[in-house]
Amino acid sequence: MIATRELHRQAMELFESALLARRAGDETRTLSLLREALGMESAAADSIAGDYSLEPTRSILHRSSASIALQIGDIQMAMRYSEAGLKGQPPHEIREELTKLQEQALTLRALRTDYRRRPPQGLTHIQKIIRRYTATAPVNIVGLADALLITVRQEDLGADSGEIIRDIDRGGFSGYSIIVNATHAPVRKRFTAAHEVAHFLLHRDRITNRLRDDQMYRSNLGTTKEKEANQLAADLLMPRRLIGQFRNAGIRAPEELAVKFRVSVEAMRIRLGIKENSK
Ligand SMILES: [Zn+2]
């Protein structure tokens, strides 16, 4: 146990130094310190992995190993330590965190897989996540972004609607953040978040550092890509299957449906084909 404690202490020191390096903007040093921290922390976890009586220490060390591994994008290590941690008897809260880390590692792996070369059988992991979040209205769009490992925050963006940026510092494990204009109305913010999630899903290989959408959701990606993003945003916020369910239950007016889906009446009218999309 003394050796385990010492390894853990050193790992936490390295981790603290990594945070300082990140704050100083030195990403190369941050990554190398995190790698060293992972080496120490995983060695600490390994040293007691066979002793199932050492809870919660056993699961705590596995959890932090998996978490550091995800921060440096080491999916295999993240999977290995979250799985090994779950094989013990972790307290309820740590079990939930280990399960979440395992899920996040699967998501990160799916985000890195190019399905164009090798189409999967059935739904992809990403499609399953989308399916889960678009099953009830109003769609929890920030929850969906979070499940896709993207951080969402609000800032005053002047006249612009939103942006998606590569953000190792504050972004989720995907390395991206979405920023929506804090001064806009709630329904507008939800549409912007969905539009940026759509850019992430469809166009992230074209985002170098920052993709900014103006008031009319125009960006340097061009009209075709913007139409794609608007279409997918509508699919995410107003799934046709759900609209059908409400209509069958007698809720048909665009004003009522807009409230149920927490979107603007205009967006719902376009979705229902009542109003031409001018964009
Ligand atoms: Zn856009």
Q: Can you describe what's shown?
A:
Helices cover 59% and strands 7% of the residues. The chain is α+β, with helices and mostly antiparallel strands and 279 residues long. A four-stranded mixed sheet has the order 1-3-2-4, covered by helices on one side. The model has no long low-confidence stretch (mean pLDDT 94). It binds zinc ion. Zinc ion is lined by residues 195, 199, 213, 217, 219, 226, 229. Residues 195, 199, 213, 217, 219, 226, 229 line the site of zinc ion.
List the helices and strands and how they pair.
Layout: H1 2-23, H2 27-48, H3 57-71, H4 75-86, H5 92-112, H6 125-133, H7 141-147, E1 151-155, E2 162-166, E3 176-181, H8 186-203, E4 210-213, H9 223-237, H10 240-248, H11 254-261, H12 265-271
Parallel strand pairs: 1-3
Antiparallel strand pairs: 2-3, 2-4
Bound molecules: zinc ion.
Residues 195, 199, 213, 217, 219, 226, 229 line the site of zinc ion.
Quantity of strands, as a count: 4
Strands side by side in the biggest sheet:
1-3-2-4
| Biggest β-sheet strands, sense, barrel | 4 strands, mixed
Runs with pLDDT <50, length 5+? Answer: none
Query: Which range best describes the helical content: under 10%, 10-25%, 25-40%, 40-55%, 55-70% or over 70%?
Result: 55-70%
Distance between the termini: 64 Å
Q: Look at the helices and sheets and give the structural class.
A: alpha+beta
Rg from alpha-carbon coordinates: 22 Å
